[in-house]
């Protein structure tokens, strides 16, 4: 039985490697040309595959965009610093610094974030679930800071803070501003959310 499992395992690994290579190609093309201006033929040609090979791997254009966003999020999650209690840093200051760091990272990848925001409604539910799971990882340090300081309604506050984050990020996308300008644009509302 183990002898049969190994070939299937090798086949699955090879398929996953092919998918990762194709996602990298799609990422590059979406970032450079925009989601709407890239077709499956262009992706398959750049990946040196036929369109049929991509479809056999279970990939279509909208799912490729979701895979790109999942990979981008995963890289960002690896860079996140968890909340650590520090009597010299309030939850508000921690959250502001945390959001500033996120803005800096997201501004560096603004073009692909813009594509994900504009066309994310197209991907399937399975990707939505995975991306929401990633969002929970991203907002966990905020929740931990709020919990440490005894805030109530932490989940609601976290979702509101995340919504504010996107308002500030839109400022970067639309007006080509820096991370500090994004944070400054949401600070008044953030202060309201961080009242006990």
Could you explain the architecture of this structure?
The protein has nine helices and no strands. It is mainly α and 196 residues long. The longest helix is centred in the N-terminal third of the chain and has 32 residues, at 2-33. The chain is elongated and about 55 Å long. 25% of the residues are buried.
Provide the fold topology.
Blueprint: H1 2-33, H2 40-46, H3 51-56, H4 61-79, H5 91-108, H6 110-119, H7 125-148, H8 154-175, H9 179-193
State the main characteristics.
196 residues; mainly alpha; 9 helices; 78% helix; 0% strand; elongated
Mean pLDDT: 91
Low-confidence stretches: none
Order of helices and strands: HHHHHHHHH
Please give the radius of gyration in angstroms. 20 Å
Instruction: Please work out how many helical segments DSSP would assign.
Output: 9
So what's the overall shape?
Answer: elongated
| Largest sheet properties | none
Number of DSSP E strands? 0
Determine the fraction of residues in helical runs and give it as a percent range. Answer: over 70%
Oligomeric composition of the shown chains: single chain
Q: What share of the residues does DSSP label as strand, in percent?
A: under 5%
Protein structure class? mainly alpha
Distance, first to last CA:
60 Å
Give a short synopsis of this structure.
The chain is mainly α and 196 residues long. It contains nine helices and no strands.
